[in-house]
Amino acid sequence: GFGFFVDQDGQVKKKPQELYARIGDNVEIGANTCIDRGSWRDTMIGDDTKIDNLVQIGHNVVIGNCCMICGQVGIAGSATLGDYVVLGGRVAIRDHVSIASKVRLAANSLVTKDIQEPGDYGGFPAVPINEWRRQTVNLRLFSKEHHDRR
Questions:
Q1: Which of the four pLDDT bands, split at 50, 70 and 90, describes residue 24?
Q2: Active-site residue 59, yes or no?
Q3: Does any domain span residue 2?
Q4: Which end of the chain, N or C, is surrounded by fewer C-beta atoms within 10 Å?
Q5: Would residue 53 count as lying in a domain?
């Protein structure tokens, strides 16, 4: 994992990643996917989870059972995903965030805080999907009105 700290002398030192990456049964991992080993807890991938190509899973991440993770997803260190979570392509999840079971995230979404309720989410930052759709429509209407005034 990408674990570093600055010591008392101001030198950047690598934090040892000495634990394990534990992969459950019937897990599929695509090409060029990186799974970092744990530093304070094992990195864990639950049973029946499917991971596409070009995915980065940080150290200490715990992914539940039956999850689907599409291409180019980045999950930062110490994040936790429940069971049956679906991450669309290029979703980014910041460190130390927890995502409840049965959450689906639209492609290109950014998770910056815990998601505690099952459901569909999207956006940058991620919000409930209906809110994200309203924001998108309002932004397009505002942009069109602004453009038409020129």
A1: very high
A2: yes
A3: no
A4: C
A5: yes
What pLDDT score was predicted for residue 1?
Answer: 56
Catalytic residue selected from 59, 96, 146, 147: 59
Residue 149 CB partners (closer than 8 Å, separation 6+): none
- For residue 3, tell me if it sits in a domain: no
Residue 131 CB coordination number (10 Å): 13
Q: Are 99 and 115 in contact (CB under 8 A)?
A: yes
Mean pLDDT score of the chain: 95
Residue ranges of E strands in 65-128: 68-69, 74-75, 80-81, 86-87, 92-93, 98-99, 103-105, 110-111, 119-123, 126-128
Cα 117 from chain centroid (whole Å): 16
> Which amino acid belongs to residue 116?
Q
Query: Domain of 68: which CATH number?
Result: 2.160.10.10
In a domain, 5, yes or no: no
How many domains does the chain contain in total? 1
Label the pairing between strands 98-99 and 80-81: parallel
107-145 pLDDT, tens digit per residue, is: 999 999 999 999 999 999 999 999 999 999 998 888 877
